[in-house]
Amino acid sequence: MADHQKIHPAVDLEAPPTPTAPPMVSHGHRPSSTIPQEMKEKGPEPKQPEKRSSSSTCCTCICWALSILLLVLIIIGATAGILYLIFRPKLPSYSVNSLKISDLRLNLDMSLYAKFDVKITAENPNKKIGIYYEQGGRLSVWYSNTRLCEGALPKFYQGHQNKTVLIVALTGQNQYGSALMNALQQQQQTGSIPLDLKVNAPVAIELGTLKLRKVRILGKCLLVVDSLTANNFNSIKADNCRFRLKL
What we know:
Largest sheet: 7 strands, antiparallel
Helix content: 10-25%
Mean pLDDT: 82
Distance between the termini: 144 Å
Strand content: 35-45%
């Protein structure tokens, strides 16, 4: 039996490969995208609510506090302006009428004893404001930043546009009497002795029928007298007074 030979088609190894046709897609249909099964089952994640930072809350509180403070200041300023226009407040004025030295001497312990009588005029220039002079007011005489004597101001009420004359007795004792007396005697030879008269008076202001809280009237009068002779009304050569309110 003769052997049958199998014949195979010859393959051209140098021939280019035959292109493969792309898959046919029918019109009106898009190729479906591949979605993981886990995402289909889980679905979209819910949005987390935004948290307000503590700094934002703090800024809001500060803004509210500043707004309230500004409103209060505006109300106070408007009230003060209205009261000023209605009452037209003015500071009281003071003048020194006379200064009498009743006693000025050295004690056995070389301390200096002084006793002055000061006559002053207090004037209230306001038409609608009264002044209550409360207890605790002080009047003092100083020489070169050293207090010579002091006394108490009386308690009284001063009405509208009123002038009140006060006579205040001042007494004092200074341990450095010898040096102080020598300085006063040397200054007396010049015929001009500078003294400071200081006022510290607690007062209450009356606006109509309303009595306000206490304030203080602080004042200083620069006096120049010609002599410190005892038991004599000394001539006041200069009198310059300045006063202010202390709340």
